[in-house]
Amino acid sequence: MSLLSILRKKTVISTRFRSVFVSAMVAMTLSYILMLSDNIVAGQFIDDDAVAAMSLVFPLLTILFFVSYLIADGLGMMAAYAQGQEDREKVNRLFSQGIMLSVGLGLVLSLLLSIFREQLLSFWEISPAYMAYARGYYDGLKWLPPVVFLNILFYTFLIQEGEEQVCVRASSIAFVANIISDIILCKALGTIGIGLGTVAGTTISCVVQCAFLFSEKSQLEFVWYCNFREIVRSFAYSFYHSADTLYLSMLPLVFSSYVIAHWGESHIIVVTVITNVLVLAIALYTGVVDCLQPMVCQYHSEGSYSSVSKTMELGIACTVIMSLLVAIGVGVFAFLLPLLFGVDEDYLIAEIVASLRCVLIFLVFLGPTLIYSNYYIYIEERNYGLILKTMLLLVFPILGMLLGTDWGMEGMWLGVGAGYLLAFLFNLLITRLWPGRGNILLLNRDKMARQYSYDINAVMEEVMNLSYSVRDELKAWGLPKSKILRLSLLVEEVGLNAVERAQNKPVQLEFSFLLEDAANQTVKLIARDNGKPYDVLSVVNEGQYSFRDYFIDSVTKDFYRRKYLSAGDENKLVFEMN
């Protein structure tokens, strides 16, 4: 199946993925442009020396994002696991702890950045003119931590809740405000104004998201709650997941130091341009990760490996296509990028273009490997996920940089790109040799063999055909005929119920069967649809139901477990019988 056909296929999972993906891409692209706009404004209204000096402060910004992800990512993953286990109260507790951590740690970090300003800036041995630009930008950004921590926490939980449109609205408003404030404050205050403009834009985004989260439309609720063990556990999850952000903050330091030592500080602009392009690519990959995290964590928590596999198929297809588009697009128009950063020397422009194209050749290996490294963390193979990230973003690129320097600046960046290829091959080899797995998703082969999953449209003919197919498939598990008949009837009634509610609108369904205990013949059925929320179980309890609602309730009355859960993107019914 081609990459495009994978994306075009309409299912419950693909519809949910596309909804989050489009919104995440818009939000991530706008966020990247906001970061890039600082450099562009400096290049257009000051000079290219200001751009180069500000790039030295960029690792600080990346570290701030790392700390913010350290707060948000682990809590988001734990909330996704809680959603998979239908524990709404735990989701609210995790959200509330995130707010308290964001405000508390943000204020402490702002204070520390003010106290240790000179010690941090003295790391660079640069000229007084460069230092003046860097110090100004730093002074503007030191007020950023509290608002950026809250902003990313809100974004993470809104995506989790299926309210991605709020994130797009917040990012769009912040985008306009950030650029306007950057230009106005830059003209008035210089580089410190650019830093303050970033703080202003992030604050506005935070306010827009906050307004929704504390409205009646939001399912999230703030509660006064603190559990130290949960916080420590969330930090552990976050460290594994956010290590790539930490490594991204380290790479510019390594590249800049190396370039200064070999070619002088005038060539730092090469590092600035290339790292900005890499940040763009990784921002796009982060959009894919934002789609995958709630879905993979939830489906893995349910034990639904088929749903995990379908989700990852979509994620990898998107990543490969994006990598190719970025590599081709940026490669063709590479000659324009130096001009955006205020570079006008011909030799530097040629050097930037050649070096950038050397890295872009290997971009298609960076994206999928980064996605897989995060995926392994979601399925709780955290140590391997961290090892793969370290190899991909630190070890192999630095090794390639050292080996490629003999061939000049272009050789250095060619070596960095080759490091991404090595990491990709490393992952293929390790996952192929993994005991009991033998597949790149590291899913247990025995459990996969005890699962069936079906995707259909909410159309009567497809529902009836699936009901007949289920009877034939379940015979392979050796279940009693009475149990097979009840399950096939349940599929038929749940499916027809969705057909009636769809009212000729395009609605998709997914039915997943999991044989969780072969000895006791425990079967779990997970039925999803992307129609309007409808809790058939509570409707019957309230006494307002149709004949079909009553039939579903009657067939499942003696089941071991019955549960309904609604998120912003799907309805889920879970039935378990033994």
Give an overview in words:
This protein is α+β, with helices and mostly antiparallel strands and 578 residues long. The protein has 2 domains: 7-433, no CATH class; 450-577, Histidine kinase-like ATPase, C-terminal domain (Heat Shock Protein 90, 2-Layer Sandwich). Helices cover 74% and strands 7% of the residues. The chain has 22 helices and 5 strands. It has helices at residues 3-8, 12-45, 48-84, 88-115, 117-121, 128-141, 145-160, 164-189, 191-213, 228-263, 268-302, 305-332, 337-340, 346-360, 363-378, 382-404, 408-433, 445-448, 460-474, 481-502, 536-541, 547-555, and strands at residues 451-457, 508-517, 522-529, 561-566, 571-577. Strands 1-2-3-5-4 form a 5-stranded antiparallel beta sheet, sandwiched between helices. Strand 2 and strand 3 form a beta hairpin. The protein is elongated.
Keywords:
74% helix, 578 residues, alpha+beta, Heat Shock Protein 90, 5-stranded antiparallel β-sheet, elongated, single chain, 2 domains
